[in-house]
Amino acid sequence: MFYIFCPYCGEHREEEEFHPKGQAHISRPEDPEATSDEEWGDYLFFRDNPRGVHHELWVHAVGCRKFFNITRHTVSYEILEVYKMGEQPSITAENYAAQQGAASADKERNASQAKHQEGVRA
Amino acid sequence: MQRYSGFGLVKHALSHHENWERQWRNPTPKKSYDVIIVGGGGHGLATAYYLAKEFGVTNVAVIEKGWLGGGNTARNTTIVRSNYLWDESAALYEHAMKLWEGLSQDINYNVMFSQRGVLNVGHTLQDMRDIQRRVNANRLNGIDGEVLDAKGVQALVPIMDCSKNARYPVMGASWQPRAGVARHDAVAWGYARAADALGVDLLQNTEVTGFKIRDGQIYGVHTNRGDIEAKTVGCVTAGNSGVMAKMAGIKLPLESHPLQALVSEPIKPILDTVVMSNHVHGYISQSDKGDLVIGAGIDGYNGYGQRGSYPTVEHTLQAIVEMFPIFSRVRMNRQWGGIVDTCPDACPILSKTKVKGLYFNCGWGTGGFKATPGSGHVFAASLAKGEMHPIAAPFSIDRFNTGALIDEHGAAGVAH
What we know:
The structure holds two protein chains of two kinds.
Chain A: E1 3-6, E2 11-14, E3 19-23, H1 37-45, E4 53-59, E5 67-73, E6 79-84, H2 93-101, H3 103-114
Antiparallel strand pairs in A: 1-2, 3-4, 4-5, 5-6
Chain B: H1 6-13, E1 35-38, H2 42-54, E2 60-63, E3 79-80, H3 87-101, H4 103-106, E4 118-122, H5 125-140, E5 146-149, H6 150-156, E6 172-176, E7 180-181, H7 184-197, E8 201-203, E9 208-214, E10 217-223, E11 226-229, E12 232-235, H8 241-247, E13 255-266, E14 274-277, E15 282-286, E16 291-298, H9 310-323, E17 332-342, E18 349-352, E19 358-362, H10 372-385, H11 399-402
Parallel strand pairs in B: 1-2, 1-12, 2-8, 4-14, 12-19
Antiparallel strand pairs in B: 3-7, 4-6, 5-6, 9-10, 10-11, 13-16, 13-17, 14-15, 15-16, 18-19
Helix pairs in contact in B: 2-7, 2-10, 3-10
């Protein structure tokens, strides 16, 4: 069971209030008429499917009904970060690995997360 | 291979069943093979078996990072059916169904294939129209099917709530009598034993850590037990296919999700068929042990954790109790999750890749078990001949760029 912090409502709510909506940060091609079949297929169907840090779009379906982004680990299911639409993630696959390695960075991460990430409860 | 028979059972009883030979060897990896299959689940083992038996390719290794059949093969709800809407998928799943019907004899292993029929229940007018369309399509493809009304469903499953007072009243169902269930572990073990007897090396606890590719041609794999060479590699790794593809520099249109299932405490025989409902979203059958085997939809988010969320379990059981109020006080014994690789059109990918000699068989999503023999057979044919088998050809990865999708989402009456 996830306990998710909605960045718009400003509080933690239970998973059932939310719906996952797939990979975040996918932008529609600027000029659809000019894209090749390959590019259009990639835009429609091909997704990152990482075993590790993943950026996802979620919607607070029975709350404020706003979309926002979650950075989540797909093996531990730990929620690493929650951020609003239009914002960029501060935790990515690259710097997550680096942070895991360095203890000092780890501490920093915990401190920055403590305010709004609870992660997996069950 | 020691053949199993009734006589053998009696003979071994005399020595207190202490002298059965091991079902398969535990070989050390050779330096090279003709074909490497990555993934020792049902589909991978079936591929290896048919390669050796039907196509004479016996210098084959199956590389499995854990133990044989330890992933989705042993985590599904064992339902076997072939009532798919589109010609391409109907051909594939019906091919599998025909192999299921002779499988126990073929591999000399009792896979407990029980053709007890599958009901796909409809609760709305649109459900019934879709069911009629699908059953008609099935019949045109030579697949058995009937449309039943609510009375017909009630006659088959007396314990189901088919009254008008239900929240989602049962209006009818599609009925495929040849469908049923099979013992999933036995499928993996049976194929493993039969493949091993034909000379296939089953390498357990061996993890592929990379592919050896030169000039766009594969020539082997890196593993934690050293490099193994082969000019043909078939990747049959279900939920981990995306990770494997990435190692080879290929992108797949797959997303890995947890799919949960659960079994109840064993109870006396009460349900002698399989009931699936797309609309209230749950499916149920009763195993030979007596436990109710229950499943439903995937957890919506990506995950590799082989576990899911409790809300999904709750929704699943709500659906089951809605259809079967009699089960409201049955206690659940165990619950687990497997990682399914879902495709945008809910159809698998059986395909060559841009790396010559590297093939993928993946994307089976929530419905791979029923296809195990057919998938293995057509994939083996493709690996042996270097050309995709005609049944497998429409499932090429190219379809996501050409637009020739096989849209079984919702069409197959399946609870995806």
